[in-house]
Structures are given as structure tokens and as C-alpha cells.
Give the backbone structure.
Amino acid sequence: MAYKTIVGLEIHVELLTKTKMFCHCKNEFGGDANTHCCPICLGLPGALPKLNKEALEYGIKAGLALNCQIADRVKMDRKHYFYPDLTKGYQISQDDNPLCSKGYLEIESEEGPKKIGIQRIHIEEDTGKSIHTEAGDTLVDYNRAGVPLIEIVTAPDINSGEEARMFLENLKNTLKYIEVSDCKMEEGSLRCDVNINVVDTETGKRTNITELKNLNSFKAVATAIEYEENRHISLLKEGKNTIKETRRWNDVENVTVAMRGKGTTDNYRYAVDVDIPPVTIKEAWIDEIRANLPELPHAKKERFMREYDLPEYDAGVLTQSKELSIFFEETVKLCDDAKQVSNWIMGDVLRRLNDEGIEVGDLKFGPEDLAALLKLINDDKISNNIGKKVLREMFETGKKPEDIVKEKGWIQISDEDELKQIVGKVLEENQQSVIDYKNGKDRALGFIIGQVMKATRGKANPQIVNKLVLEAIEEK
Amino acid sequence: MTREEVLQVADMCKLSLSEEEINIFMGMFTGVMEQVKELDELDTENVEPLYFLNIKDKPYREDVVEESLDREEVLKNAPEEEYGYFKVKKVME
Amino acid sequence: MDITRLTAEEIREKIEKKEVSALEVTRAHLDRIREIDGDLNAFITITEEEALEAAKRVDQKVKNGEKLGKLAGIPVGVKDNIVTKAIRTTAGSKMLENFIPPYDATVIKRIKEEDGIILGKTNLDEFAGSYSTESSYFGPTKNPIDKERVPGGSSGGSTAAVRAHEVALALGSDTGGSNRQPASYCGIVGIKPSYGLVSRYGLIPLSNSLDVVGTFGRNVKDATLLLDVIAGSDINDPSAMEVERVNYLESLQADIKGMRIALPGEYMNMPMDSRVKEKVLEAARLFEKLGAKVEEVSLPHAKYAWATYYLIVVSEISSAMAKYGGVGYGYRTEDYETLDELYIKSRTEGLGEEIKRSIMAGTYILSSQEGKKYYEKAFRVRALIKEDFDRVFETYDVILSPTTPNLPFKLGESVKNPTEMYGSGIFNIPANVAGLCAISVPCGYADGLPVGLQIMGDRFKEINILKAAYAFEAELSLGGEHSGI
Ligand SMILES: [Mg+2]
Ligand SMILES: [Zn+2]
């Protein structure tokens, strides 16, 4: 039997505007509870919303980057429900006229490039945050109430947990590129809900859609989808079906758990918010935003291949994050060899970032420091291997490579007279290896050079050592 | 209009009704719908709904931070507060 | 001289000429309130301390020879659904019995900037949601003309206070006639500005596509003076419009010869008290005498105004009232076990019967498929109703009608006969639905009870209705001194 998994995502992304969506309060993560509040975001009687132009513009930006059509007129609607973190008894959102629609984002699926449809992107306000104390009380902070969000709804084009993860990575990358959001799932600036069901491709039988919540990492999204996929399939196999419900991902046990609900479907009683006059989005405005969009990941990748003559793989890795691509280009500007820079970044730098789970922005050194390090190597001041040790120090301390080299006494020995003496001594002590080499055992040469390096604690210039050793053997 | 429907509406808007009120609303909703059916006489298919009487060129504002309220002011009307938060005492969820 | 008998215009003049101090004016009115308001109940909150401080500041300005604001020293009453910083604002509801706003409504800021003296917050139907001021959590207000009768509503506290000389001017709000019907019932002048002429920032919403802040005075000039102060666009209300500034007060001098006046046949044929009809027809003849041209016109969609209004108003009320749940502010029930219970008990205990009926109706309309269909249709019919008016205003300057089809009814009567009460707004609601401006001006008395004349004008053409009302008032010379306390 063959089964097909059908997944659609609903992603909420907080926008990086300076102020909230409808008031002048600071849009900032953290801060003492209830210190970024005013009559508008507190929903006090009589206060009226004032739409933030930037929130609208960021929404349009996201729409354009995700290949959407932009609505020519925007109105806002009220979505009613009661919950303590919602100050007005309704959320200002968009019902029937989303800001953006009919877009897509491409991922590299196992079968090659695949377009995931974006059904709609609408703008709305975030809610406050509730904390549940040990005593069981609920404490509410309205600093987040009214922060602008975009809600992105995909078409059910995703067919596996891995595809969902790839989509999210790409989406995050794109939104960070255009600087509308920092997409930090751990801070809640990107939140993702999943709708999933499975169809038996032979019988056409489908399970009912399950909604998954509380997914706090891309990995959790992928794992939860896989978990649900199996749950749906085994029910189908037993001739049963799922119930239409919302389940919560438990990231300790790695299982989904049904959420307690009243069983009634929500009725949000959408109504037009007449306090917010509609905005006409002129073609000229969209054109202007489009013209000012930064280079998107895909375009940058192609440019890197063209301009720096990088292999596709390198270009792909380097453009996966905007910061990384900038770090690369800044370094190349100071140090011509693009491939060398790429090798260092993709190798030692990325490995270290991944190991520590940090981002380029967290590095203690900048592109100019990496360039200085490469210059030390290229000028034969230090060897490649010492270079790696220096880089490790840079990660730890953020010190300048020149200073590290000086402090540690790692300057390469290139003085031929000094090295000749050492080479002479090593040959003296390893006569058998000299004989072996002469008898055609090439490997013996490596051993001899290694001994010279060891004697200099790695500081000898390997090229010179190589030359001197060969000369010395010749002479013997 | 059934009793069930009335109770569903009350649940949505978070009101509790006495038996008497339930009966009143059953009648009232029926009456309301009868009255608004008057509008069926009008063909409005080609009429745009007039939600906004006043349309402006630039109905939005610039993204500029202004001072928020002091926390004391924010919490002044809170029925209950604790540690600078609005508080809802222990409830079963 | 009884200071409380002075018009707003006279008060300011006398203060400027140092014939009387602002403090004297304020004290005289506070005395008057102390004397009669226990019985009248026009005020929910009296702000004596703040008023005396404000009066002293005005007197200091006079002493220093500084320029005085347009409302310098004039006592003003504020309907208690308009928020006042650090002054309790209740909207006439138990829900907001202890609500102290941290901000001033834009109209309040403007009154303060013009040196007006706010004496207190006036009574109203809970959340301005009815027509008699009887649904206030703080008890009903009596009509100063006949204390067995209602002052009308929902701005009944403001109109009673102005009529009874507790204040010279007052603010009201008008969603479906709340500035005109009580003005008519109390025999004073009430102005409902065009939707968007005055900022709604700080007006506690009832139905936000219909609500406007309006003004009251004992004569047209006084009510106009207050309108002049509060009108104008506001960055805090995106739907308040930038309209060309007209000097209303100066234009009141002009005569109305050649003014084109429409009398809608549909209105005059609606059921109404014959004494009211009589007075309005008399008024029409008086306009002709003044050189205006009065002609009958047709407003074909007039009969649909009520259903349209009802659908919009209850839907918007249900939405506006969703914020009252006892979490961030407002009444919270004593004990609750679940979150649902917190909401249900707080709302059920904190809100009054009348407003709950509207919430239920609105929730039903927005939640059911059929209701939602009519909700949307109402906004389409609204466009048709507005077109009717647009057409009339192509040819005519103003439209005449009675303000109400009836005379002030007795306290307690509305419970027995709610239809009559709701019916009292029948001529008022079209102006809200179409966003027009309108004024109610006294046009005589029938058996000792006041009759109001409603004059409607096109959107943002306040000047036309003010001119017409001023000329009419001058000719009729009723003033505000006819009868009552
Ligand atoms: Mg959403
Ligand atoms: Zn705010």
C-alpha cells in the first residue's frame, strides 16, 4: 500500500518594526513586564488604532520575496475570541482580503527543485504573553500585545517532515535576507503550526486533518510530522480514521498529545474594523519596494558562482545565511583568493559555528581578521596548520591574528641558515630514513620533513624545509 | 430559533442567561430576522458595501517610537496584579 | 445677576472684561449642582477640585493679561463615555464603575486648551446604548422640564444639566440620535457633527461606524462655540478628516434668504404625534417667511434605515463590548473556577440588561451564516441610503424633519413600551447611517413639553445647518428660558 502525507504550514512571523502595529510603543523582545504599553495596545476604552506604515511595507516586502501578488487595497478585520492575553476581545487581523496571495517558495526536495505554494500572507497583531506560575495563577504581560505579525499560510504541497524543515529553513533565510524578521523560534518571533493528513493513494481514503501546535524548533516540526504520519498511517491500516483535532507536540517524550478542547469549532465572528481606514496600495509603491529589495538567496548564489568562480555547492552553503554571505564577501574584498576564503569559511569557521550552535553574528572576530589571518599564511609568515591554531584562538579570545602569532611565538621560521642547521641535525639522527628515501621509499621524505617540523614546533616554513631537505640529501 | 442556538450565542459572547432570558431571546432572534428580511426587497448585488465613510490618502502613521505609559499607570485599573503583571488567579484549564 | 442664567458667550465676555471671575462662575454653577442635582441626577461624577483649579488658572491669565481661550471660564459638562485623564469614566456601567483612564480624549484636550472648565461627568444610558438615560447603572436622570419624564438619551445627563443651568455647555455622543433626541426632550440645542469632523479618540465606542461626539448649549451660538473648539482632524483618529476650516461663529450672522430646504415626504408620513407634526410644519412656514425655499423631496430608501441601522449597531456593539471581560480593567466577579467562568460571570454581573440584549443580537448576527449575510447587506443598503441624501443635497442645502416623532415620555414607561422608546430615534438614525451632520433646535412647546426641529446637512457642511438653526432660533425667539427649573 502507498500513502501520501499532506502537510500545510501556518507560520506567524513577528516583524522587526521599531514600534507596534497600531501604536507608538516600542516593539522589542523582553523588557520588564508591561513597560511597553499604552491605551491603544492595552485595548483601553476609547483608544483607536493607528496603522504603522512600516508594518504594511514589511508585509509587502515579504510578499514580493515569496513571489506573491499584492492586494491593491487593504482593510483590517476583527477576529473575536476571549483569552487573557488578548486585550480587546478581538485580534485585529485580515479575513477575506489578505495583503498577499498566490506565491511560492522553492525547496530542493529529493526529486529536485519543488515549488511550495503560499496561499496567503496577511498582517495582524500579536497577543500578550501569559505565564503560568507554580501556584497555578496566570500572569499576563502585554509588552508583546500589538506587535506586528505576518501570518503565512502554505498550500498543502509539503509531503514530508524533511520537506517542511527545508521549507522553513528557506523561509527563514529569505525573511532574514529582506530584514523583515529575525525569525528566532526560541524567542517566538517565528512560530509554526502544522496541518497534516495522509491519503491512501490506492483507495483514495484520507484521514482527517490534525493540527499540531507547540513546535519549538524546525527539528521538532520535522519529527512531529513524522510521528503524526505514522500515527495516521497505522490508523488507516486498521481501517480507522483520525478525528479532526488539535494536538500538542511534547518535546520531552517526542509524541503528540491531544489538546483538551470543548469540541465546538471556533467561530471568530469576523467583522470589518471600521476604525482603520482602508489603504490603497499603489503600483508605484510596490515597484519602489521591489526595487529596494535586497538580493535574495537564490540570486546571490548564482552571482557567487559567476563572480567568484565558486562551485555550486560552495555558493549554496555561503548564501544560506545573509550574515555568512556578507562575511564571505567582506573577507574576499581584503584578500583576493575567493576559493581560499570559501574553504576556510566552509571548513573551520562553519564547523566551529555548528559545534557551538552559534551564528556568524556571535563571532568574536570580523572579516578583516580572517583576511589578516589568510594574509599571514599567504605571506609565509605562518603555516597553514599554525593558521588553524590561530583561528581557534580567534574563536576563543577574539584577539588579532598578528597578536596571537606574536604572543605564542608562532612566527614561521623562514631563515634558511637556521633551518639548514636543524635539517642537518635531523638527517644526522635519522640516517636510516635517508637511506630508505634513496632506495625509492618516498614516504621516508615525509617522515624527515615531519621531524624537522616537530623540532621547530611547527613553525618552520614547510616549503623551505622541503627544499632544504632535498638539497641536503642530494649532497650526501 | 431553538434554545440550543440561543445558548450557543450566549456561550460565544460569554453571558449566562436565566430561563426567562432564554425564552425572550428565542423570540427576539426570530423577530430580528423577520425585521431584517425587509432588506431582501432591495437588490444590492452591484452595490459595494459602505464600511468606510471617510477615506484618506495616507491613513497610516510613521514608525516612530513614543513614550509608553508608566507601569504604574498600566496596572492602575487591573482587578489584580502581581510582580508587575496582570493576574488571573488560579483557574482550571 | 444670576451667573447660571448667562449664556456661554456672555460668561466669556464678562470674564474677559473682569466683570466676573472664572472662580465665581465655577462656584455659582457648583452651587447650583449641589442644590438640584441630588434630585435631577444629571451627574455621575463632579470634579469640583479640578474645576476650581482650572478656574484659578483662567483668572491668573486674566490678571496677567494673557490671551484667553475660546472657552475661558465656561462651565462644561462631559458625557461619561468620554474619557478624562485621572477622572473616573464609567460609561454609565457597573463594568467601569472604578475605571480611571490614564489619558484624555482628544475633545477633552481641546476643551482644556481653550480654557474650558469641566465640572463633571454626566449621566447616560449604559454605554450610550439606549434612548432614556434609564439604563444607567447610576440611576435615571430626570427631565428638568417635567421631573416625571425622561430627559431622553443616551446623553440625558448632559442635556438635563444644560437645561437646568448646572453647566452652560456639554458634550454628548450620538450613535442613533443620542445628541438630538435628548436635546429635543430637554428643549435645548444639540449638534451631531458629520462622522469624521470630530475626533473619536477617547470616546468609548458603542458602534464605531456611527458614533460621533457632539455638543449641547441652550442656544445655537453656544452649541456652535463648543463645536468650533472640538472640530478638526486628529492624528489619533485615522477616520477624522482634514476638512477646510470654516469659521462657524462668524457665518452665523448671515441671513438665509434663498436657502433651499427639503422636507422629505417619507418622514412626514411616518406615524407621529400630531402636535409634533404641527410644530414642524409651522417651522417650515417660518423658514419660508425668512426667505428660504421649502420643497417636498423623496428619500426612497428611508424605510430601510431602521433595519440597516439595527444590523450595524448591534453587530458593532457586540464587538466593542468584547473587551470587557474583567482581565485588564473593569469589573471582575468575586469568584470563579475556570477562565470561562471569569468571563461569563464578570460580564453577566457587570453589564446591564439593555446592552446585553444588543450583544446577544450582534453576536447572533456575526456568528450565523444568515446573519452575516445581512450584516454585509446592511452596509450595502447604507450606500443606497447615502445616495438618496447625496441626490437631495445636490439641490438642497438642508433637510427638515421632526427630531423625534413623540414628546418626552414618562420615567418607567419605556419598560412597558420599548417600541415607543426605540421609535423615538426614527428620524435621527439616517444621519448616522449616512454620516451626515444634523442639529436639533427647539421649535416650540406642546402642552408644556418641548418639541425639537431636526435640520440635517450634507457631510461636513455644518455651516448650512448652523445658519438655518440660528436664523430659525432668532425668529422664533424661544431661547432657553421657557419653562422648567
Ligand atoms: Mg493568526
Ligand atoms: Zn501601545
Remarks:
- The interface with chain A takes residues 82-83, 89, 91, 96, 99, 101-103, 105, 200-205, 208-209, 235-239, 315-316, 318-319, 321-325, 327-329, 339, 343, 363, 366-367, 375, 379 of chain C (CB under 8 Å).
- Chain C has two domains: 3-259+399-476, 308-381.
